[in-house]
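INFO worker-7 received task bundle
INFO bundle size: 2
INFO processing item 0
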Amino acid sequence: MGAGTSAGAGADAAEEPAGGGADEPVAEEGGDAAPSTSRRFPTVTQDTARPEGGGRAAPGDAPAPARQWPLLTVLGATGLGLLIVGLDPFDEAFRYGTILIGVALITGAILRRVMPSVGMLAVRSRFTDMVTYGLLGVVIVLLSLMTQPKPWLEIPFLEDVVHSTVP
């Protein structure tokens, strides 16, 4: 049966008119060629769309770091927070470091909202980036504020949830 299906597919392919297949490029005449009516995906991706706001954050003649300053700002603050947590140079450094990491993500969400172009900080659509960066930043800040020992923020219903789930 496998050989019969293969032969049948070959016969169908031979009956298609020249230039009608989805794998073949459609010849453009004067730039007004009709789009292909095939619903099959192309075998080779031709192009991908850049996320909205994914353009340069500075003019094209500026050096590369200047064009990507929003991303470098978020990465720099996150790196500084990780360094503070890793080196533990003072009392409660873990809390300050993780708060800095959360604030860096919230800053990324704000930059994504207010700036028309943020370079490589734009990964997905503007709305998805803002929600992702903002939500992760807020969660990290809240968790760092509730970290034991001596939490700076106590949420009573969370203690009840933890006590009811842990025997």
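INFO item 0 finished
INFO processing item 1
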Amino acid sequence: MINVCLADNYPVVHFGVKSYFKDHADISIVSNVGNFSMIEEVLKNKKIDVLVLDLELEGLSSIYDVKSIIKNHPKTKVILFTSLSEQIYAPNAIKSGVSGFVHKSEKLETLGNTIVKVHQGTVVLSEAVKKNLALIAKQNKSERLYRKLSNREIEVLRYLSDGKKNNEISKILNLNEKTISTYKLRLLTKLNVTNLVDLVNKAKTLEIV
């Protein structure tokens, strides 16, 4: 039996996923958490084979937090189960050590198949992600600009798009405010814009945020 911890903000997601896998032959949802801070305790006290995690989970500020979980608990595989853009986040997530990425628009059957494959040691991208990556390869240079962005730059861009100031972002990501300013300048350069308004608009056009 594959022991799974589901980390998600919404009770309806917990209920739906747990109900779906209630009588599953291979998968058991043994823990549900609604905040990133609770994950460490669960992984210490229970044998968790697969962590199913939403990137927008309360308390999760950075992909680096996910990398830390993977480093500290190498026997636990991590699957991102999120509504964030696949084509933007899947490649960086896989680079960070995540074993699978399933968009929330997929059927729970797809999540189940991914859990089984990941537990067996396979790195899994959903069919939707594979199709998106294939489309990305065919896009022109301007449409592929976001591929130049690092995990951290994407995170800073998300917070800027949410209307947060540099000092707010620095506290969320636990970085120096000058560092955030540097990331902001890099983003302006990489996305070929000269101000914050155009930066946010460009990010939305490219579906980065």
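INFO item 1 finished
INFO post-check item 1: DSSP finds ten helices and six strands in the chain.
INFO post-check item 1: The beta strands are 2-7, 27-33, 50-53, 77-82, 100-103, 124-125.
INFO worker-7 idle
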